[in-house]
Amino acid sequence: MQRSAATVVVLVGAVPEGLRAVLGTHTTYVLDDGDPLGAVADAWVRRFDEDGPVGELEVAVTGTVQRWRAGTIELPDYYLVTGVEDLGPTRRHWYFGVLHDAAPRRIVPVGPDPRRVLETLEALPPGPWWPPLDRLLDGIDQRVPDVAVPNATSAAAVAPRLLTPGG
After folding, report:
1. CA distances, 161 to each of 126, 153, 154, 156 (Å)
2. 92 close to 149: Cβ distance less than 8 angstroms
3. How many Å apart are CA 121 and CA 28, to the nearest integer?
4. What single DSSP character describes residue 88?
5. Model confidence over 131-141: pLDDT tens digits?
6. Is residue 9 very low, low, confident or very high in pLDDT (cuts 50, 70, 90)?
7. pLDDT digit string (tens) for 79-123?
8. Is residue 62 part of a domain?
9. Residue 1 lies inside a defined structural domain of this protein
């Protein structure tokens, strides 16, 4: 499978109002709010927030890996996560635990200001590519979220400090 020549960025969280106007037409980035791991992330969060049906996560992983093997989905170059403080602890851990552990420089928190998003895009650090998706998701049902961060305010303060572009 051949990856896109453009830098593909998935925006997670609230898309800042006016973002597309700030980006204009002179950009080498493809911004997308469709997360190729969205079904897996949702099922993983539901599993550990104790309201997900039995087998949901396994079905989501199997379907996602099948689509990846068929070449119909690929992981983005980066995830920009907006509204970190609004994410529940389990979803925060999906991005800043599970995915961050797999490719630390590819998960970047960003504030809601569209100009800050643009600045972040211009400063995205290079880094190792994702592991193969089947390996990334292998054993995900056994990966328990870290709930050491007691509230969203603490996570918002920690994540940007640890995961800033170029850091």
Report:
1. 18, 13, 11, 9
2. yes
3. 10
4. -
5. 999 999 999 99
6. confident
7. 999 888 889 999 999 999 999 999 999 999 998 788 888 888 888
8. yes
9. no
* Count of the separate structural domains present in the chain: 1
pTM of the model: 0.79
- Coil, helix or strand for 147? coil
25-41 residues labelled b (16+ CB within 10 A) or e (exposed)? eebebebeeebbbebbb
Q: Which domain holds residue 103?
A: 7-162
Closest CA to 137 of 39, 25, 53: 39
Instruction: Indicate whether 167 belongs to any domain.
Output: no
Distance, in Å, from the CA atom of 114 to the CA atom of 120, rounded to the nearest integer, reads 10
- Read off the pLDDT of residues 59-72 as tens digits, 9 standing for 90 and up: 999 999 999 999 99
Say which amino acid occupies 74: E
Specify whether the CB–CB gap between 33 and 103 falls below 8 A: no
Asked, for residue 2, whether it belongs to a domain, the answer is no
User: Band of the pLDDT at 155, cuts 50, 70, 90?
Assistant: very low
